[in-house]
Amino acid sequence: MNITRTTIVDFIRRSSASAISLVGLSVLIFLIARILPGDPVIMALGERAPIWAIERMRAQLHLNEPIYMQYYYWLRDVLSGSLGESLVTKREVWVDITMYFPATLELILWSMWLNVLLAMTFGLIGGLRQNSWIDNLLRLFSYVGVSVPVFAFGVMAILLFCWTLHVFPVMGRLSPTTMLPPRVTGMYTFDALVSGDFSAFLDAAWHIVLPALATVLAGIAQGQRVMRSSVVENSRKDYILHSLAHGIPRRVVVFKYLLKPSIIPLVSLTGMSFAMALSSLFIVESIFVWPGFAYYGMQSFLNKDLNAIVGVIMMIGLTYAISNMVVDYVVGWLDPRTRIMRRSK
Amino acid sequence: MECVWNKEAVMILSRSGFLSKLRIAPDREQNLKKMWYKFARNPLSRAGLIISAAVVLVAILAPFIAPYPKHAGYFTDFGEQSRPPSLEHLFGTDNLGRDVLSRCIFGFRYSLMMAAVVLITVVPAGSLAGVFAGFYVGTPVEALIMRLTDIFLALPPLVLAMAVASVLEPNVFNAMLAICLTWWPWYSRLVYGQATSVKNEFFIQSAEVIGASSVRIVFSEMLPNLLSIVLTKASLDIGTVILIGASLSFVGLGAQPPTPDLGTMVADGAKYLPELWWTAAFPALCITLVILAFNLLGDGIRDMFATEVI
Amino acid sequence: MDVKPLLNVENLHVYFKVYEGILRVLEGVNLEVRPGEKVGLIGEAGCGKTTTMKSILRILETNAILPDVNPASRVLFEGEDILKIEEEKVQGIRRGKISMIFQDPTAALNPVFKIGTQLGDVIRYARLARGQSISKNEIRSIAIDALKEVALADPDRILESYPVMLSGGMRQRVCIAMALVCAGKMLIADEPGTSLDVTIQDQVLRLLGNLVKERGTSIILISHALGAVRGLVDRVYTMYAGYMVEVAKTEDFFRKQLHPYSICLVAANPKMTGGGIPDGVPGRIPSYVDPPSGCRFHPRCEHAMQVCRTTRPEFYDAGSQHKVACYLYR
Fold first, then answer.
1. Residue A31 in domain
2. Cα distance from A260 to chain C (closest Cα, Å)?
3. CA distance C68 to B284
4. Which of A229, B156, C75, C290 has the fewest CB atoms below 10 angstroms from its CB?
5. Helix C168-182 to helix C115-129 angle, to the nearest 10 degrees?
6. Contact yes or no for B155/B214 (Cβ under 8 A)
7. Is position A179 within any domain?
């Protein structure tokens, strides 16, 4: 990829725009978090805590000072690398986050690749076999998939697949009898593969499939719709006919010359699906008791754990901003037309 | 080109039944028919309309339709608790002896109310913000509004809603407030984008014609497009807002028990899986049905407003 | 004169199943091309020229129907009926015997792949047809040669480019190069250069003429540009609404057209020598869902007779290698 001066300037412009938004977000969340009715200190220490302990903690959290001072302290802490201390776990928030993060990273990676794979496959099948029974079935799925709330799917899936059919395990990341693979990244599937423990890999994968599907069900449904219409539109185009006319085998025409242009809208949609997936994670991790970052976030929300809430929100905001930029760049790379248009500006 | 907002106004009026009292000119009637045709062409849109209308009707008539209306509030009957679906209780009873079907019917009320309140608040407010920002381009007003919009959009919607709801006391009103705060920037950005693009076109093309009438012309050019775009998005959003509302209730940040909100019911029922599966399954199916119906309806409305592309 | 034809389209009927009903697009097309011969095909937009060509290569859409008629529709190429043989054999024909240059070069090239990839694949599969496997370097050198043949400068750069980076004329030449790789015996040029400006069109046609002369391939040239057709081909077919209405040797045709439609078509061509802008042919091509009975031109024909409305005229002889489908020449 050519890194030209305009690319760098463009990158800086985008990053600063995102950074400004994130700073604004931090102010917003900070304000909201501090306007809390109810006393965070009492919630943390309990109602029977002695007055001196309460006062001490208040001073520690600067709760007695004006709000802009509180923001200043928080900002100072963040810039020196600390997100404050969680009222619940009594650890540094960023320690908590790094501890819970790999589980979520694993979940989201699996979710996204399942999203792209299934959306691409279903869309391709539907587009190639237009109006057949399988196409109609898939289109029905695409409508329903978008309408099922994540929690409803989660609950129903657990009911159906775990309790009734016993296809998937009910919760957790590994069966109690499986040994933990040696920690490389903290992602059990990856670590198991890397250390060659295939049965652990299978077990971890078995545990992760249902949560992953729950996270991206809506994404698959939408992606499939986009892919299908893209396939239908492109299969009528002259260049496909042209390739066939020159004797290129149908298999090659479909999986190379039809697939690549059709997948472009799906990729940009996947970026949006990622954002939706970030939100769904909160619910999925709670239902499946998946000890990840979103689970931690959810608990912080429910426990009104101020520092943790702010820390989690900032992480999400940052991830969201980065993912949007990445998607823009990937789309540009995939479709040379946009790349060239941008360069010629 | 005939002013599109007339069509919309007539559509809205027709829904509220004033049409028969007005004498509609033949060409407007023709336009209405055309819009209806575009909507009704797709059987799924028709299905969406019918089911949504049914749900609204059921919600309004809940006290009369539900077999056990009292079960929707504070009610316990430990004699009838945990009964599987039967003829007396089509959806069974929950662990407190309440009829699940009746609670689902009342649950529709909460879902619809949430969507209605949020959209009625957010659509005008957000659109107005966008219009102001678009109109005062280059001024601090625009900068303020658009920066604020960007900030609120820096998080995925559900996360923001949960964050806001988490710092407020959990109840229905606060959930609606949280969703309102989350949703308004989408309309602001949408309207702003439209306003600025139309404005640019206009000024580039007719630089000489600028005069006192430019304001009025800009409004009469901008408004018709804006209205159809905003209404399209609003109708597509109904399902999504219901979904977010139910999700907030599910995680405990919205309606609290014993309020029969569908999300809360699924959360309650989930505790008793798999034995009392009906307490979770039926509310889950109901909420899916509502969202599906409004999504299909929204798609149909979008088709209705879509301009024909040759 | 009785050289066995390379391509013989006999009584070709092609219908399409669409929402409104059945489109009877081709209703008995007869076309003959001898080895090394250059044949022109003229007709209005929508008369079925492209559909006929697609039938020859058997790349019709999935909703195409080949109805049972008597005598049966046949597309004989070197003696074999393309419509009936197995897909493998047809692939072989596409890869090495017949190839087609599409009307719009921009639409014909896949925008997200480099020219080198697309041309390379064509070459690889063309070679595969002859039972030879081929290495990347060989493919590249053949590609470069092909691009040089169509007078494209800097072939290396072009192979690395995407279609959007090239001009219209260059894209057209690339398409011609691709067609040449596959064309052993016959080339079908569907309105080459129509979507480009006139000077480029002229160059393209000259290029085609030279190439065809050097290699001895037959060519079917479909074009609106009557002047171009006149300059290049040996015989001219005129097509209207799904079948051929006239065929003649070029000089005979342009000296005197026989079919009322051909007369109007040639007369409608604006001449640089003056005389004002001609009137054109009144009316429009018929709907294929409900085509006119008998001779499909009769609603627009000033010589229409009773019999024209009821039965289709045959291809009557009207001179040396001159045939007309009109009752005026029975």
1. no
2. 7
3. 56
4. C290
5. 10
6. no
7. yes
pLDDT higher than 50, residue B208: no
* A52 in B contact zone (CB under 8 Å): no
Contact A283, A297 (CB under 8 A): no
* Residue of A128, A233, A242 to mutate, testing the C interface (most C Cβ within 10 Å of its Cβ): A242
Q: How far apart are CA C277 and CA C269, in angstroms?
A: 8
Residues in chain A closer than 8 A to C122 (CB atoms): 246-248
Among A122-131, B173-182, C27-36, C130-139, which stretch is predicted with the lowest mean pLDDT?
C130-139
CA distance C71 to B198: 62
CATH of the domain at C31: 3.40.50.300
Distance from the B270 Cα atom to the nearest Cα atom in chain A, whole angstroms: 7
Chains sharing 3 or more CB pairs under 8 A with chain B: A
Query: A239 — contact with chain C (CB < 8 Å)?
Result: yes
Question: Do A147 and A276 belong to one domain?
Answer: yes
Same domain, A69 and A102: no
Report which of C56, B2, B143 is spatially closest to residue A245, judged by C-alpha positions.
C56
- For the cut 70, the answer to whether the pLDDT of residue B6 exceeds it is no
Contact state of A246 with C104 under an 8 Å Cβ cutoff: no
> CB B166 to CB A304 under 8 A?
yes
Using the Cα atoms of residue A206, residue A207, residue A210 and residue A214 in order, give the sign of their dihedral: negative
Mean pLDDT for all residues in chain C: 84
Alpha-carbon gap, residue A193 to A200, rounded angstroms: 8
- Which chain A residues are closer than 8 Å to B239 by Cβ? 147
Q: How far is A163 from chain B (nearest CA, A)?
A: 6
Which parts of chain C register pLDDT below 70? Answer: 1-2, 272, 274-277, 279-280
A14-40 pLDDT tens trace:
888 888 888 888 787 777 766 655 566
Beta-bridge mates of residue C31:
C9
Query: Which tops the pLDDT comparison, A189 or A287?
Result: A287
Contact between chains at A143 and B263 (C-beta distance less than 8 A):
no
The structural domain count of chain B equals 1
Range of the domain at B153: 27-66+89-306
Is B152 part of the contact surface with chain A (CB cutoff 8 Å)?
Answer: yes
Higher pLDDT, B16 or A229: A229
Are A330 and A245 in a shared domain?
yes
pLDDT exceeds 60 at position A275: yes
Q: Does the beta carbon of A305 lie under 8 angstroms from any beta carbon of chain C?
A: no
What digits encode the pLDDT tens for the residues B191-200? 888 877 766 6
Host domain of residue A56: 37-81
Same domain membership, residue A329 and residue A251: yes
Interface of C with A in 179-208 (CB under 8 A): 179, 181-182
- State the residue range of the domain holding C262: 7-87+224-329
Section A93-99 average pLDDT: 82
Question: pLDDT (tens digit, 9 = 90+) per residue, B20-46?
Answer: 444 445 566 777 777 787 787 788 888
Cβ contact C58:C84 at 8 Å: no
| Chain A contact set for B269 (CB, 8 A) | 155
A300-338 pLDDT per residue, tens? 877 777 778 888 888 888 888 888 888 777 777 766 666
CA dihedral B245, B248, B249, B252 (to 10 degrees): -170
- For the cut 60, the answer to whether the pLDDT of residue B308 exceeds it is no
CB contact under 8 A, A143 and B295: yes
Check whether B19 has a pLDDT greater than 60.
no
Which residues does chain C have within 8 Å of residue A248's beta carbon, measured at their own beta carbons? 121-122, 125
Q: Which chain A residue shows the shortest CA-CA distance from B296?
A: A143
CA C229 to chain CA centroid, nearest Å: 12
**Residue C30 belongs to a domain:** yes
Alpha-carbon distance of C161 to C104, in angstroms, equals: 19
Reference A246, options A257, A234, A255; nearest CA is A257
CB contact (8 A) between residue B167 and residue A155: no
User: Is B201 among the domain residues?
Assistant: yes
Cβ contact A148–B288 (<8 Å):
yes
Say yes or no for a CB contact (<8 Å) between B251 and A150. Answer: no
Q: Is B295 on the interface with A (CB under 8 A)?
A: yes
